[in-house]
Batch of 2 targets.
Target 1
Amino acid sequence: MEHLPFKTGIITGSLRRDSFSLKMAHCVMKLYPSFMYELISLCDLTLYNEDLETDTPPEGWKNFRESVKDQDAILFITPEYNRSVPAVLKNAIDIGSAPHGRNVFNRKPTAVISLSPGKMGAFGANHHLRQSLVFLNMPVMQQPEAYLGESGKLIGGDGMIANQVTEDFLRGFMEEFQKWVALHSSAEKY
Ligand code: FNR
């Protein structure tokens, strides 16, 4: 595949210092190093407010939009809040999608990994996120789906995936994502 390695931004839906989502992002980067990764931080994103959409929008918004624009693909790794996407992630999506006609997510292939300390693997967040991704015009990998339950047990003290089944699953997921990105990337920029 001539375009490898693809630049892939990872966006996690949590600001928490000890976030399982962030730890999972580091696990994915280690266990599947074939992408060129960038962790795209949401820490400096003030709440979206159209009044700030001037010639000089907030610096955090500008940096976030540039970081997303620079990627070939985006991987979302998110927890669930109240059966939906955490507000910080929805805010980031809103910022990246605006102003009208300048959606930086447009046409970037993507995939979603959701995780939760509970058993349902943040299914609700995963699917609410997919709803927004349709409107962002992002080709979203359909299969495999990744709903990781019991996130507190998945990552060992060494920062690696603690069980072989999950490790194999994630490696397979990322292999499929690489094929998905190759399929949807084009030398021609839109
Ligand atoms: C949660 N949590 C949670 N978990 C879940 O499986 N379904 C849910 O709907 C919710 N809702 C929810 C709302 C709020 C406001 C908080 C603070 C938490 C628990 C959540 O999954 C857990 O705190 C994760 O560890 C958060 O992800 P990070 O920060 O570890 O990545």
Note: Residues 14, 16, 19-21, 79-83, 116-118, 122 surround FNR (CB under 6 Å).
Target 2
Amino acid sequence: MVRQTKQTSVTVKQVQLHQYDGDILTLGLFEGSKRVPKEYAYLDKVIGGAIREVLRLGDFKGRANETTILYCPGRVVCRRVLLVGLGKKDKIRPAVLRQAAGTAARSANKLGASRLGLAMHEIAKSKIDIEAAGQVLAEGAVVGCYKYKDYLSDANGNKEAVAMRVSIIEPNAAAALKLNRGRKTGTILGQGQNLARAVANKPGNEINPPSLGREAQKTARQCGLKCRVFNDRQLAEMGMNAILAVGGGSANKPRLIMLEHKGRATRGKTGAGPDVVVVGKAITFDSGGISIKPSAKMEDMKFDKAGGCAVLGIMAAVARLKLPRHIVGLIPAAENLPSQTSYRPGDIIRTYNGKTVEVQNTDAEGRLILSDALAYAAKMKPRAIIDMATLTGACVVALGEHNAGLFGNNEALKKKIEKAAGVSGEPVWAMPSGSEYLEQMKSKIADLKNIGDRKGGSCTAAAFLSEFVGDVPWAHIDIAAVADTDTEKSWRGIGATGFGVRLVVEFMRMG
Ligand code: BES
Ligand code: ZN
Ligand code: ZN
């Protein structure tokens, strides 16, 4: 019954539109086009003027992600033409193209098609770089095709077990070459994002800290990464007492997963620390522990490992892209359950860097496992640390599901992350933190406590984390609101979003 989702492939095909022999040919069109663009004119003639007619009747307006399907009986090799709106010409951006490709991929999937053509000749009229277009089209298609269906039987709508073959259609040789360069990058990024989604979507009875460790080792083997998984005994020897405390209540013992990519330019270097350490919270299920959560929506707490899953996707992508950098991924993994062996409110933990923390709420566990992992990361003396975590409900309240919260101790680093977010289309919003917020986290009987008061919950959580990075430039991305969704969009399905994979890889690609 368990079925693996096969991967989507993307290629660039240098053919004329009417020669494409797939199941569906997608044509991107700007909003308000009254006439058939000249690039699509010959195809339209071959299919008997169907495009001209639909534009004339105004049934298709070209609004972003609007779709209309046209059937072409017997006239061309491809029997279906799918029109996808690109919105207003002056508003066209790579993000619009990415979504259009995702919308086309999802429409094709629903029809059971397995060969999808994408023609976006309209972009020639825009300022979008052709290579960038190839990248976002591949990203959109790969991400759009993904659906979590590991446990769906055929009778319940799992007919499409086929892998989608996507072709970007471009008759011009020079343009096809550029599209292909971007296509390679975009496919890897999309697959990295889907890997993060695939693991994050798995339920708590399948993914726990040890099985997440095995998942990381499998990815490392496939992509050529170094991987080390520290078990609970090793964590005890190292002094990772916060990770051990949080994971203490579960029979599935905690792990610290370390992945390493040493790109070519960095292999000879000795002594120098990594360029970036990316840290991701992986609570494989967060019940709250002894400070137990209410039952409503508790099932969504399987997504509390999304930060760690993003790190997995990022590391897979940087290895496949062969980025010339030294990058380390760290995934502290624990399951937060109430039991006889759980940590309790009132406990005091001596963390990896020696700072002590009074536990006042066992549901504020993310910052605890991160404290050990961040201190471990800082010890490597990297040029930057970026962490991603489904850390606070307060961030969900503050920003809603359209922005992740961005915190940190270094303005230049935050600026660069904002820039990468602009490229990847995963928006972040800069939030305050600092010494005033840190005051709220001081304990009377230990160096810190793990909750503040109700005020500024995501800012005080970030202030807590800042105590464990020393003076290393550090950014924290609170993905609590964006890591998963139950709102279906035309360009992507529900469940884990893989937020942060493209963002952090784009950050690393910026040099
Ligand atoms: N994993 C949660 C944060 C969360 C909440 C993520 C909602 C996604 C959706 C985290 O471990 C948590 O429970 N945080 C508490 C902290 C509080 C006890 C200070 C919270 O936000 O309520
Ligand atoms: Zn919690
Ligand atoms: Zn949590």
Note: The pocket of zinc ion (ligand 3) is lined by residues 283, 286, 304, 365-366 (CB under 6 Å).
